[in-house]
Amino acid sequence: MIEDRINLIETTIKKKFSSAYETVRKAFLALDTDFDGYITLEDILRHFGSDKNLNYEDLKKLIVDKDSKKIGKINY
């Protein structure tokens, strides 16, 4: 069940990015509002905050799972 919710969140974010931005770089720069070189959980929530499908805990798990360095800048 949790995995299904996380997959839904991932799909939702991918669709919004692909329809709103021409390149990954433009999407990244739009989300990285403090220009620190990282996209944080807070950055994503700020951008997609009005989406009822984005659960904070599920989004946090998605980001940690996708973080290739496992050092995501997520406040616990």
Task: Walk me through this protein's architecture.
- By secondary structure, the protein is mainly α.
- It has one domain (2-66).
- Helix content is 61%, strand content 0%.
- It is built from four helices and no strands.
- Helix 1 (2-20) crosses helix 4.
- The longest helix is centred in the first third of the chain and has 19 residues, at 2-20.
- The protein is globular and about 35 Å long.
- The chain starts with a helix and ends in a 10-residue tail after the last helix.
- The model has no long low-confidence stretch (mean pLDDT 78).
SSE arrangement:
Blueprint: H1 2-20, H2 24-31, H3 41-48, H4 56-66
Helix pairs in contact: 1-4
Short key terms for the protein model shown above:
76 residues; mainly alpha; 4 helices; 61% helix; globular
Give a nutshell description of this structure.
The protein is mainly α and 76 residues long. It is built from four helices and no strands. Helix 1 crosses helix 4.
Largest sheet: none
Ranges where pLDDT stays below 50 over 5 or more residues in a row are none
| Structural domain tally | 1
Please tell me how large the radius of gyration is.
Answer: 12 Å
* N-to-C span: 23 Å
* Mean pLDDT across residues: 78
